[in-house]
Amino acid sequence: MADLMSNDMFLAFSTYATIVVLKMMFMAPLTGYFRITGKEDRKKMLQTNPDVERVRSDLNHTCHQNDLENIVPFVVIGLLYAFTGPDLSTALLHFRVFVGSRFIHTVSYLLALPQPSRGLSWVVGIITTFSMAYRVLTTTLFL
Known about the structure:
With 143 residues, this protein is mostly helical. It has 6 helices and no strands. Keywords: Acetylation, Endoplasmic reticulum, Membrane, Mitochondrion, Mitochondrion outer membrane, Transferase, Transmembrane, Transmembrane helix.
């Protein structure tokens, strides 16, 4: 364990993985905030508020759901990627681009920015994860 804590690659991965996991965790209280501050009609609950719905629109396409679908694979693949021994600067580029894309995705979702802002940020994040997965498979392919 001491070896991992002194490994720059593992520390870089841990930092960026923690940032995106915390961002994902922040989405649930954000929904609650919009409800508590009266941005959602609590009596009728038939009428929804667009601010709340941007965070929690329908079960399949919420910002939080999108985070789950993208951040969990990043954490798993990113950890495996870090163990393949890539160049630190290349790994940092992957980690930073992914984290940036998730923040841009969230901001564009919450502020209802016009497309293709949200779509492009999603594509950048998924390509980054696939790039790391490609490195993992080509480095450790054992079939």
